[in-house]
Amino acid sequence: MSLRSALRAQTADCHAAVDTLFGSFNLSRIQDYRAFLRAHARVVPSVEYALENGGIGRLLPDWPDRRRAHLLAADIRELDDRLPVLLPQPALLSEAAIWGAAYVLEGSKLGGLLLAKAVPDHLPNSYLSLQGLKGAMRLFMDRLDATMVEDPDAAVAAARDVFDLFLKAGQAELEAVP
User: Fold this and answer.
1) DSSP state of 132
2) Which one, out of 7, 33, 48, 63, has a CA that is 20 to 30 A from the CA of 103?
């Protein structure tokens, strides 16, 4: 079984929970959209920092083009909101864990493209609508499929940890929406 297949199968429950939670934000309402972005801003920079500290640049040379925390921060500032406190960085102590965390962040880009359609045109949405370089998702999936890690369970654990961070952040922000 490829690492991608293992990640997909063994994190499907987490993915569904995150999709359900973030699907409850009404992105056409500015209050919900701000909360949605703040929830992501609690997680994305932390995970990106952890990936960089773990050496994602060795695995994905185009990593700098994949980063989105700066786009997220710009959208939040454009909404006259402030950045929230970050959740702790996940511990990415192996190549497998790096791939697992990257799998979640890269996959969230696809969901973001779908969600961007619900954001009114007058609101900033560079974070959600980021297309990236042509073929970037295919390149990521090809590299993930070609990866032979010694401990695929570490990849799954890291992915589940990142999904859990998104759940915690989403729940906290959703509770604060008026």
Assistant:
1) -
2) 33
Q: Is the pLDDT of residue 132 over 80?
A: no
Residue entry with tokens 């604060």: 176
Q: Token match 């929830």: residue?
A: 39
Q: Which residues make Cβ contacts (< 8 Å) with residue 118, sequence separation at least 6? A: 27, 28
Q: Which domains does the chain have, with CATH numbers?
A: 3-176 (1.20.910.10)
Taking a C-beta distance cutoff of 8 angstroms, is the pair 100, 7 a contact?
yes
Report CA Rg, the chain: 16
| pLDDT band for position 117 (cuts 50, 70, 90) | very high
Conformational region of residue 120, where left means phi above 0, alpha means psi within -120 to 50, and beta covers everything else: beta
> Residue 3: which of 141, 169, 116 has the closest Cα?
141
Distance CA 77, CA 1 (A): 43
